[in-house]
Amino acid sequence: MPPPRDLRDWIELLEREGELVRIGAEVDPDLEITEIVDRTVKAGGPALLFEHPKGSEHPLLINQFGTERRMCLAFGAQSLDEVAGRLEAIIEMQPPQGLVEKVKGLAKLKSIADSMPKSVRSGPSQEIVLEGDDVNLDLLPIQRCWPGDPAPFITLPAVITKDPRTGTRNVGMYRMQKIDRRSTFMHWQVHKDGRMDYLASDGRLDVAVALGLDPVTAYSASAPLPKHIDELMLAGFLRGEPVELVKAKTVDLEVPANAEIVLEGYVQAGDEGIEGPFGDHTGYYSPAEPFPVFHLTAMTMRRDAIYPSIVVGKPPAEDAWLGKATERIFLPAIRMSVPEIVDYDLPVAGAFHGCAIVSIRKAYPGHAQKVMHAIWGLGLLSLTKSVVVVDEHVDVHDYDEVFFRVCANVDPKRDVLLSEGPLDQLDHAPTIPCFGGKLGIDATHKGPAEGTREWPGEIAMSEEMVARVDGRWAEYGIPLGGRTIDAS
Ligand SMILES: [Mn+2]
């Protein structure tokens, strides 16, 4: 099944699959929606379409990404690893050997070419055009998410800018605190591509914000791609069809033709104000800090536009599965740089940057430490605070198993590495913002090559005895299913 074409196609799919509940009652975007959604997310519940948010004509869609099943539906895939597999085929392209390989290679190249965004003359995202005094953010049911938030925040935007030096497009998901009818803050953190575009311009930088996209394009806006790679190309590749773009009305940018709502405007170098605090995915309020002001010049939308939102907070929240999608989809790219990595897991409870568990094919002394440093040097994974390294046969997604390895295999004096480096701007724990300590735990097997005594064998029953018990004792109905030690 191909991924949904736009937000309405997606809502229809969710409804057909029993994954969406429509709420006809009037509900307040000021805190009330958060309380309902937070309980729904934590119970593994459905997407919610609030048809009558208080004070707005526009319905509000939330929790569209809140479970693994919905995330897979969004990608038209059976699993997130299947989505990663599609990218792996491209990433691992080698110079073709025979004719068959050459033809396959051409097909792959064509699939990349077919992923490039496509310009079209008109699109539903511009059915209604509001300019000048008609621009009015009060029309939208923007949520104030938590009691300590000073204002409503747009939380699921795709923010589009161009690098003023190279013209390369960037699309990112950055929260936007509403200031008044025609301006918001733009939360471009120090490590984000959007901020680089802002810093590279010495005057006015055009910005467009797309709201209410098909789920794959919305996901792609959140994906941590290298600076020079257009998120809309990733979206086109993952969708299997290009993202269609129309010219914006008042700024020199192209915007998705299928968006429900587009905000056009600009930021001006040096024009900043104090943004926040905001109840963030760390489970704490991120502090008030200076951020650029986004001035709206136009607001375009579809008729009966649907406004998308997401609430983050103490994990697990809806962003857990956006993060898990990134974890899975980027595994092939990580293996490109660090091929000894077998698998990795970013625990949701660790708010993604807090902890990474990595399994490796260990080949030499210090290999686990090499991989820790690699993680601390890799894209936005460099912000990871602690890295736990285990051997290849350990399931990194089984936290009991990982805890067992850490407790069983670690000599804290020998196997704990303390380092330092850049940290997530949202992390409140370090002494100064954006910089602090790093913790590496080597829970792999060691041996004489690393100066320790002989490493003992791991307990495992013989295959023969396992087979014998499987065959002979089943008839008694005693629970023999759960073997505690795996023979692998
Ligand atoms: Mn980017």
Describe it.
This protein has helices at 7-16, 32-42, 68-75, 80-91, 99-113, 193-200, 215-222, 231-239, 319-329, 331-337, 367-375, 399-409, 412-415, 463-472; strands at residues 20-27, 47-53, 60-62, 118-119, 128-131, 153-154, 158-162, 169-172, 176-180, 183-185, 204-211, 244-247, 254-256, 261-268, 272-275, 278-279, 285-286, 289-301, 307-308, 341-345, 355-360, 386-391, 416-422, 435-442. The protein is an alpha+beta fold and 488 residues long. The chain folds into 2 domains: 7-308, Pnp Oxidase, Chain A (Roll), CATH 2.30.110; 338-450, UbiD C-terminal domain-like. Strands 5, 6, 7, 8, 9, 10, 11, 14, 15 and 18 form a 10-stranded antiparallel β-sheet that branches. It has a 5-stranded mixed β-sheet with strand order 20-21-22-24-23, sandwiched between helices. A 4-stranded mixed β-sheet has the order 1-2-3-19. A hairpin with a 5-residue loop joins strand 16 (278-279) and strand 17. Helix 4 runs parallel beside helix 9 (319-329) and helix 7 (215-222) runs antiparallel to helix 8. It is globular, with a radius of gyration of 25 Å. The site of manganese (II) ion has 6 residues, from strand 8.
